[in-house]
Amino acid sequence: MSSPPPKPSTSSSGGEKSVRFSGSSTSRGSTGLDMDQETARALLDNGAYFVFLDVPPGTEFGIDFPSWNTGERFLGVKMIPPGVHYVYWSAVNTTYRQTGPRTGFFHNFASRELVVKRYVPADEEVVDVGGEEKERIRTNLRNMDSGMGPYPYDEWKKWVSLTNRISPATIGTYNMRSSCLDSCLFCYSAT
Length: 191
Fold this sequence. Notes:
Substrate Binding Domain Of DNAk, Chain A, domain 1; about 20% helix; globular; about 30% strand
């Protein structure tokens, strides 16, 4: 079992930064990319990957705390530190600037793990991708790099402080009941 990546260096700068996340940008006070080379190399070598296929541009996507609106080239997140993480998304109506209910899942990412999901726009559902397709993606990860955003590492310490008591057994129990957690469990017709 590998040890966690080294702590990042801290840097401060005035003003807000424009965050680039696989073809998307949003204004945030932190990019998550402020880390030393040793930390970046450790996460690149030992971090997990979350590949999210067929996500429509403009979809709100996040992991742990931060969220972004996806761009045309969005393929997922790389350099995810091992441990418990919450991956989530919301459909967005770009014409009316309306965001749908948030849906997501908790996952205990292992070192170098690859998790692949596919968004099905017609049903606004997410399905697991496995087998041969997942293995093709694994062998092609380096070529997918430009569409993969780095994990927002500067938020990791705060995230761990909130989730360090969630055990893999707890996540397993939750996943047996439901594969995803919705922010809106019941929707009622207005008519």
